[in-house]
């Protein structure tokens, strides 16, 4: 993937990816830690939550489009639906709602 990279430093490998699938796979294999949306990590076998520093900067979610289409009515409607959906997912993405498989089954 274009956003994946690896670099050796101090005898170890440091990995980065812009793919949640890649990051979750590496964590599940015991290859390190990653910041993942809680609703994604909670359902991945082999991944568990750990305490994270509270001073991490927020990571914005961008919905980008080509400027020639930015004013398109169809694209505006899609952006509105995405914004509403991501806003509704906010508590789950931030770990403020239990998203473990057992919690989802009992809901």
Indicate the mean pLDDT: 76
Helix-strand string:
EEHHHH
Shape: elongated
Give the C-alpha Rg. 17 Å
Distance, first to last CA: 36 Å
Query: Largest sheet, described in full?
Result: 2 strands, antiparallel
Overview of the molecule:
The protein has 107 residues and is of the alpha+beta class. Helices cover 37% and strands 9% of the residues. It is built from four helices and two strands, in the order E-E-H-H-H-H. A two-stranded antiparallel ribbon has the order 1-2. It is elongated, with a radius of gyration of 17 Å. It starts with a strand and ends with a helix.
Give the topology, please.
Blueprint: E1 5-9, E2 12-16, H1 20-28, H2 38-41, H3 73-93, H4 101-106
Antiparallel strand pairs: 1-2
What structural keywords apply?
2 strands; 107 residues; single chain; alpha+beta
What is this structure, in a nutshell?
This protein has 107 residues and is α+β, with helices and mostly antiparallel strands. It has 4 helices and 2 strands, in the order E-E-H-H-H-H. Strands 1-2 form a two-stranded antiparallel sheet.
């Amino acid at each position: 993937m274009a956003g994946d990279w690896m670099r050796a430093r101090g005898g170890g490998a440091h990995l980065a990816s812009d793919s949640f699938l890649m990051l979750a796979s590496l964590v599940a294999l015991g290859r390190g830690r990653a910041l993942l949306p809680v609703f994604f990590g909670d359902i991945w076998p082999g991944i568990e939550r750990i305490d994270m520093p509270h001073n991490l900067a927020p990571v914005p979610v961008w919905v980008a489009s080509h400027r020639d289409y930015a004013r398109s009515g169809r694209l505006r409607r899609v952006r509105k639906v995405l914004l509403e959906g991501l806003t509704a997912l906010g508590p789950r993405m931030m770990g403020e709602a239990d998203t473990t498989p057992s919690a989802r089954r009992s809901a």
